[in-house]
Fold:
Amino acid sequence: MSEGFFASAYGGDASGLPAEGDAVLASTARHRLCRLARLLELPAMRRAESRIFAFGRTCTCRRDGRSLRETLDFDDTLSIRALERLWLHSAASISNPGLTAARLMYTDLHCHSARPEVQRSLVNIDLAELNTNDIDAVVAAAGRSRISAGLHPWHLVEHGLAAAFDALERLSPRLAAVGECGLDRCAATPYELQRRTFIRQIECAERWEKPLIVHCVRAYGDLLVLRQTLKPKQVWIVHGFTGKPGLAEQLVCAGCYLSFGKALLNPRASARDSWRTTPLDRVFLETDVADISIATIHAEAATIRGLDLTALQRQLVANFDRVFR
Ligand SMILES: [Zn+2]
Ligand SMILES: [Zn+2]
Structure:
C-alpha cells in the first residue's frame, strides 16, 4: 500500500471529501487509517479504485457507485476489523482478489496457540489440564486471538472439577465460546464423568449466551439426544469433524455447525464428502493441534468444493462474525 494513494484519497485533494466533520478528529482518523492500511497491506483498495474517507467516527468506502459505511472506534483492533469489513465488501468484484486475500482472511475455528498469519481464530484453553495459576499467562499468549475455554473430556479428574469450573466462571466475560468440551468413547476418563461435566458446560454456555465448541468421538448418538432433550439456544460447533455425510446432515439439522481440519488432506477420508455436502453457512475450518498451516487447509477445502479461495474465505469470515459476536 503506498502512502501516496491514501494521501490523495484523504487529504491531498480535499475537494472530494464530505464537508461535515470535526477537522481535528478527521486528521487523526486519516493518520490512523494510513497506518492501519499499511499494516494490512491493502493494495486491493487501490486496484479497485476504491476510496475511503474518514470523518469523525465514520468511515465510508465508495466503489462502483456503492457507498458502505463503518463506524471506527479508534481502538486498533476494532479499526482493523472495520477496515476488513470494508475490504470484504469492496473486494467483491476485484479481478484478482487473491493477491491480498492471504494476509486478511484466514479463519481458524479451533487451535491451541495463536498463529500470527490468521486473522480470526479461537485459541482454546483446557482448564481441566491447566494449573489455574497459569491462566493469565495463557490468556496473554493468545494475543489478539479470541479465546475459548472449557474442560476437555480427556483430562477430567473428579477432584479438579471445582477449581476448573471456578476458573471457567472467572474467565467467562473474556470468552468467545465455551469448550472444547464433550464426549469421547475412546478416552480413558469414565464416561459418566465426561457426560456430567459436558452437561454442566452446556449449561454454562446457555447461561452466558455463548457458543459451545464440542469434541465428540464415537458418541454422536448421545450428543444428538442431549441436543434434543436439553434444547439449548446456543450454537454448538462440532470441531474436528471426520464423520460421513449422513451424520453431518443429522448434526446440521439439529442446529450444529461443523468444523473441518486436517482430515480434509487425506484423499480417502469421509470428511471430504461431508465437507463437500454441508451447507457453506454451517462450516468452519481449523488447525487444532495439527502441524499444518491454516492456509493449506483452506486451499484444499476450496479445491474439494470447486470454490474460489477468496469466496470461501469471505464465507468463513461471515460465519465467524455471525457466531462469535
Ligand atoms: Zn478435540
Ligand atoms: Zn483441540
Summary: The chain has two domains: 3-101, 105-323. The CA atoms of residues 210 and 250 lie 22 Å apart.
